[in-house]
Structure formats: structure tokens, C-alpha cells
Backbone:
């Protein structure tokens, strides 16, 4: 009698384990992500979108995707992406949302400064996005890191339309050159702390009047405004990078 009860017990136990195994298998099949659609940030270029889709396809395993592995690998391979989200839907569907940081300016025609103070390759962004950004010429030092002060100065300059009036070159936080687009012979030398340049238009007019007064409007001039209560006006031969007179 005891043996029969034990046999019934083990049979029932095996049946329970079998049921749970079958249930888990069915649950896995129902919950597995097998089909992925995409919601890309419209700022992203077609090249980057295609690269992300290709990488996702490589992460497919036996017709399904593991969410943790997918998120981890995409974050590793595309660290410049601001945010990656995935939403699951019935019938093994999921939507992958990819967000890019907001672009602020183009640096040296090859990189983009973002609102996160990161600098990423310009090919991450669509051409129409790049065409709307102000251009900055900068030293290699700026491509490595952007300080809070420089970032604030750049954003303030954009709001004050400085990039529409001047060609901006940033050598360092302490050395900015603003070359007048309408009068390339005049360059203003300043630093990040001079910006925002609320009075730059008035200052610019003063400098041009002073140059005209000296009767040397056909000579290149550098006006250094980095000093308190004074402007150092230097005349250069052959442009701002030429020999000082």
C-alpha cells in the first residue's frame, strides 16, 4: 500500500514539473520578442539608422531577441546615442526607440557639439540638421572636452546671432577670434567670459570707427577686448595671422 502511494506521489510530482516546464516553454514563446519595429529620432542620419538595424539583426538568437543583451550591446556600440528604449506589445512585437542628443553647433565641419557637452561625428546627424547649425573652427583641444563656461558662451552666442555676423574660431577658453563676415579685415579677439556679448554690436561699431579714423581701412586689424576698460588694437600686415606692424 505504501509503495503504491509513493508511486502515485512521484507520478503526480513528475506531472507537476512537466506541467510547469510546458507552461514556461509556452510563456517564453508568447513573451519572446521576435519582431522589432523602429522609432528613430528624426535628427539621426540614414547611415546611423541602417547601422543600428543591422546590429539588431546580428543579435537575433533562434528567431528571438533578448532584451537585456540587445540594450547592452546597442549602448556599447553606439555610446553617442542619448537614449534607447524598448516597448513590448502582444504577438511577440516590440518597438525600439532611439533618441539622439540635441545638436548645437558644427565643429571643423567634422564633428557636432551637443547639448550634453559631448562631441560626436557629424555623420550621426541628417544633412538637413547639419545645414541649420552654426559653424565653429576650433583647436583639437576643444574636440577633447568642452567646459561649462565655453558651452554657456556658445549657446549665448547662438541666441545673440553672433554666428550670423562673425566667423568664430576657438583656440581655447581664453582665446576666441571673431572675424567680421562683412569686413574680413577686422577681427575681434575675446574669451569665453566676454560672452554673452550684449554690447558687441556697439563695441564693433566703435572699433570700426576708430580704424576709419586712423585712415587704414584696407589693413587687417585685431581688436583685443579681453582686458578691463580697454581695447588693444593691433595692425597686421597680410591678415590677422600675418606680421604685426
Residues:
Amino acid at each position: 500500500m505504501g509503495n503504491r502511494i509513493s508511486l502515485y506521489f512521484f507520478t503526480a510530482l513528475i506531472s507537476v514539473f512537466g506541467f510547469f516546464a510546458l507552461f514556461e516553454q509556452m510563456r517564453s514563446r508568447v513573451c519572446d520578442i521576435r519582431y522589432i519595429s523602429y522609432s528613430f529620432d528624426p535628427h539621426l542620419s540614414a547611415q546611423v539608422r541602417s547601422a543600428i538595424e543591422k546590429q539588431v539583426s546580428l543579435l537575433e538568437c533562434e528567431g528571438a531577441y533578448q532584451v537585456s543583451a540587445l540594450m547592452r550591446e546597442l549602448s556599447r556600440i553606439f555610446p553617442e546615442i542619448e537614449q534607447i528604449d524598448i516597448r513590448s506589445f502582444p504577438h511577440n512585437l516590440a518597438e525600439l526607440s532611439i533618441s539622439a542628443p540635441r545638436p548645437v553647433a558644427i565643429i571643423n565641419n567634422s564633428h557636432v557639439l551637443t547639448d550634453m557637452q559631448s562631441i560626436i561625428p557629424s555623420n550621426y546627424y541628417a544633412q538637413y540638421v547639419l545645414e541649420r547649425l552654426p559653424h565653429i573652427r576650433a583647436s583639437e583641444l576643444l574636440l577633447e572636452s568642452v567646459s561649462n563656461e565655453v558651452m554657456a558662451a556658445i549657446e549665448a552666442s547662438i541666441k545673440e546671432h553672433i554666428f550670423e555676423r562673425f566667423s568664430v574660431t576657438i583656440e581655447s577658453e581664453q582665446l576666441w577670434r571673431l572675424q567680421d563676415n562683412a569686413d574680413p579685415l577686422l577681427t575681434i579677439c575675446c574669451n569665453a567670459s566676454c560672452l554673452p556679448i550684449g554690447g558687441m554690436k556697439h563695441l564693433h561699431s566703435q572699433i570700426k570707427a576708430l580704424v576709419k579714423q586712423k585712415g587704414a581701412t584696407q589693413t587687417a586689424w585685431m581688436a583685443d577686448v579681453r582686458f578691463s576698460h580697454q581695447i588693444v588694437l593691433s595692425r597686421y600686415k597680410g591678415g590677422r595671422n600675418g606680421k604685426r606692424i
